[in-house]
Fold each of these.
Amino acid sequence: MAVPRERLDIGALEIHADSSGHEGILTPAALGFLAQLHRRFDATRQQLLQARRQRQAGYDAGGLPDFRADTAAIRTSDWQVAAIPAALQDRRVEITGPVERKMIINALNSGAKVFMADFEDSSSPTFANQLDGQINLRDAVAGTLEFQSAEGKSYRVGDNPAVLVVRPRGWHLNDKHFSVDGEPMSGALVDFGLFVFHNARALHGRQRGPYFYLPKLEAMEEASLWDEVMAAAEDDLQLPVGTMKATVLIETLPAAFQMDEILHALRGRVVGLNCGRWDYIFSYLKTLRGHRDRLLPERAQVGMTAPFLKAYSELLIQTCHRRGAFAMGGMAAQIPIKGDPAANEAAMAKVRADKLREVQAGHDGTWVAHPALVAVAQEIFDQYMPTPNQLSMLRQDVSVSREQLLAAPSGTISRAGFDNNVEVCLRYTAAWLDGLGCVPIHHLMEDAATAEIARAQLWQWLHHGGLEFSDHAPIDFALFDQALAAHTHLLRDSEHPGAARADAAAALLSALTHADTLSDFLTLPAYDQLA
Ligand SMILES: CC(=O)SCCNC(=O)CCNC(=O)[C@H](O)C(C)(C)COP(=O)(O)OP(=O)(O)OC[C@H]1O[C@@H](n2cnc3c(N)ncnc32)[C@H](O)[C@@H]1OP(=O)(O)O
Ligand SMILES: O=CC(=O)O
Ligand SMILES: [Mg+2]
């Protein structure tokens, strides 16, 4: 629930960082806008985070997520989301990437229909990364974005760039560099507030937004908060109600039970839902962390054809299309492999298979992590989706039960899978602490969501006790400590991103893995250490 609007007052907003170079973004008016967002909406955010903790306590005590009784009427009644703008009618391939200057230009020029500029899973939220990202996006919107590489290559945005969609941080993250009345600000409100303050009117004038991807929601009330925030911002910026559009990632297990409710909460501005598969797997692990009968096999065995993931994606398609919203697919983790044509072809074949599954299931578009994958995904969608979208595929054949969404697939845990989880989590955390939010490891894209899977699996396998590898050797903490020490040594002496942070990352991963409770997010304790 919003508190009444107050006079613009930035007296109480403080910036705890050296903001030189960012004055054009951190103008007094922009800071006043942020302060106002905080005062109106942060109390509600805190209540919603408390509600998450209460629900998790219920799951830890043996409860399981379920469809809500109090919202049954939303699920059973007939209603549709608002009309989808022309610029978002065809979203067959969307490229995602961090808000780094060169990458933004490459993404806008990639041939993808949409570019999701990511302040979230693929960003390490240093003050410089987030604020430089705002400068880069402001320049992109103004049409002045250019870049000159150290090697002398010039970059500029070409004709017909991808449509820009921005993903702010989730509700759980504070931004320690901004406080209002002595309280830290929400990272989500900082990212959203600065972006709309500087760009909303220009984008609206061109009928190109502003458009958002909303991450990690767990309940319809969290979607309602975004709706209120956007409505208030539209009012302040004198834009028509519903100008700001949202696509919501369904990437938590609790949210899978509230897809209709989330669409309904945002029905005046929602454009679709997206299968954020990596965070969804992480959320399954975290939500059911206390349930020994629902442990997952090693992450290489948990693909989208696993029954619980197939059920979730089909329910998403059915729910979206019934309401006139797009059902977006997700990210295959494979990226191009240079210098090994056979390995590259095998990786591309996996991407093609994933996109084929998505388009045939009824998804209206998909994500790719790298410019070289745009054509790969587009070829499949062009062949199987000759229309701009497939809203008319209602998937009335689908019937998904609570049990199907919750059923753990069978599988095994190998020594290699255990070791890979240690390596990936260590290397990713080290890179993140060094300011890099997305890295290639063994030819796969690894970001905050994929690293969380590795971390949560290690914790579960070790804390439930008595588990064995496929060769029947016991899984125990001594093995974890040995693997962590070995990988820390290797990373320290390597040229991998984050090598200089190997020890800090190892200490964090060790503490999180040995702790009695699975920490809600890796990025919360890691953020305390981020320079
Ligand atoms: C779970 C989720 O949330 S998924 C969404 C979040 N994750 C992402 O967005 C992943 C984004 N992808 C990336 O960050 C990168 O592709 C990585 C880290 C996986 C691999 O990066 P690299 O090893 O640097 O890739 P590579 O060397 O092949 O890059 C080749 C070129 O493509 C560019 N490029 C690579 N990925 C992207 C991208 N996603 N967007 C724009 N440009 C890109 C590089 O900048 C480079 O440009 P240049 O030739 O002009 O110098
Ligand atoms: O954000 C996407 C995901 O898969 O997580
Ligand atoms: Mg995610």
Amino acid sequence: MNPSLILFDLDGTLVDTAPEISDALNALLAAEGLPTIDPALVRSWIGNGTRELLVRALQHLALRGVRDAGEPGAADALMPAFGMHYMAHCGRASRVYPQVEAVLDALREHGKRLCVLSNKEERFAFTVIERHGLRDYFELLIGGDTLPTKKPDPGGIRHCMRLFGADAESTLLVGDSEIDVATARAAGVPIWAVSWGYNHDRPVAVAQPDRLIQSFGALFELTALDAPRERVSTY
Ligand SMILES: O=C(O)COP(=O)(O)O
Ligand SMILES: [Mg+2]
């Protein structure tokens, strides 16, 4: 395995975003006079994008008898306010996982093309990587609303492969959920799954990724087959 193009899922793979996603959601619910939700439950809803998370939160409240939460259109009506709360919380309580910067540095130094492929809407995904200083590692960020489809549709992977002239053998997806595994399978590319992310309430191992990694440092081995590029100074 010596991929030249490596695509990274964002939430649960590069950055632990669950705390601020539940902070933003609960800030919205409190502002609307609705009951707040246990962060552990919110964490289990991450993976399909922010709007979908809001839909699930409202369904959860409706099932518990909260009036108005189950009204058709409730999620769309609340989405602009949720977006404002989320933007205000983005990058505050989230943390980049250990070794991420060191690995991305090494991969870039060895000439790998790196992209983010997230189901989080582009503006939020961009804000998360920007606020954590990760932006310059990536040549492209595809969010859940960048293209007509999102994961598990293989469109995002195919788009990157076309753009960077990579075939299935020279592409790798690194993700944390069964959605990522399904996306990679649909595109015919290998998938390495991280063990520490968000996969609803089950271990991602059940989705049978090609490899399960226990630490981000495992990705250092992807640099073993390429000589480091000469650094070109701009000064
Ligand atoms: O925001 C989400 O729900 C998921 O985002 P991810 O695809 O980066 O895990
Ligand atoms: Mg994820």
Amino acid sequence: MILAIHAIPEPDRLAAIAERIALLDWRDGRETAGAVAAEVKRNEQAIMDSAPGRALQSELSALLADHPVIRAAAQPRRFSPLLISRTGEGGGYGPHVDNALMGRGDRRIRTDLSFTLFLTPPEEYDGGELVIDAAGTTQQVKGAPGHLMLYPSGSIHEVRPVTRGTRIVCVGWIESMIEDAARRELLFDLENLRASLRRQLASQSAELLTLDKTIANLLRMWACA
Ligand SMILES: O=C(O)CCC(=O)C(=O)O
Ligand SMILES: [Fe+2]
């Protein structure tokens, strides 16, 4: 499942985040790529190991981890640290698949889902579309600031060359409590149904209670917490 989510709706908050990102230091993105990906990766990444970097990291991580749609769609168990990526003219990221495992020791995660949170207005750059291969067809996205694309980490994807301006995004990975994508989709449908029924029915209605029970019992059956 590939999903577009309006993750940060508030323009003030986005502007404040963009201002703070502009003050960070940057390094070549190839330093954090695997050997194969390094050959096709042409970007810069913010150095997050500084006081402002760490503050941004924890604020953005909390925002994404608490987002109800991300929670329902991804059933996150753990998030990777976030990357902030800057791609200028001539940069891009050729077709690749993300590493299956990221991080070391007890912070190592299995990457089930990848996401890109768009931060630059699309009219400020040309090219730079995120292209995701989905069973033979492709999804091509250039999101507005605050929009997030969530997609399977195992799919081949790329960032088309930037031919004008600068593209800034925040990128990260999620290990889901639900390893199987079909089960995850089923739970997402049920969570959406529950949200819609909550708007229509009294909270103690028999229908909602049955749905609560079904969701809880499927989680018990499937989740690796
Ligand atoms: O910049 C993006 O939208 C995606 C970056 C990416 O694919 C990666 O860092 O593995
Ligand atoms: Fe990637």
